[in-house]
Design a protein that fits this description.
2 helices; mainly alpha
Length: about 160
């Protein structure tokens, strides 16, 4: 009768904050009735009963499950959850701002490239304008020289 020997253990107790379960010597022929509520048990506050409220949060930053018998514990848990939510929101905002930063940097690079292209085009335009002016001046000089040569040629033709 190993079961009766287990029941005859003297004063075995399990401490669980405000609750104590004590087993005393009970004769094997007497029925034993034990009543308890899981709702009042601090074991209910085990991590299995509180799924991760913030799965994207690092494990060490997860709010620890509260002790339901302690108002202070519940309050700390609620504060921790609130802080975790704020932390999550700040991380989301940082991610959005980082993305916006990347977009702005890409846009700035594009504008700088366009600006450099525009500057290069302006420089090229100035060079071509100067070359055009020089060529027009050369053309005018050539036309004048050609006119002088025609006049000289006509004078020679007329005197011969």
């Amino acid at each position: 009768m190993a079961g009766s020997k287990q029941l005859e253990q003297t004063s075995k107790s399990i401490d669980s904050s405000a609750h104590m379960i004590t087993t005393a010597r009970v004769p094997a022929d007497k029925p034993v009735r034990i009543a308890f509520s899981l709702n009042d048990s601090p074991d209910d506050a085990s991590p299995e009963n509180f799924p991760l409220a913030f799965p994207e949060l690092d494990q060490q930053l997860q709010p620890l499950p509260p002790c339901h018998d302690s108002k202070e514990s519940m309050q700390v848990y609620k504060q921790h959850c609130k802080i975790a939510e704020e932390y999550h929101e700040v991380k989301k905002e940082i991610a959005l701002l980082e993305e916006r930063k990347k977009e702005l940097i890409a846009r700035l690079e594009q504008v700088e490239k366009e600006s450099m292209d525009a500057a290069q085009l302006a420089k090229e335009y100035a060079e071509l304008t100067e070359e055009n002016r020089t060529l027009k001046l050369a053309q005018t000089q050539c036309v004048e020289q050609l006119e002088k040569l025609r006049i000289q040629y006509q004078k020679r033709q007329g005197s011969s």
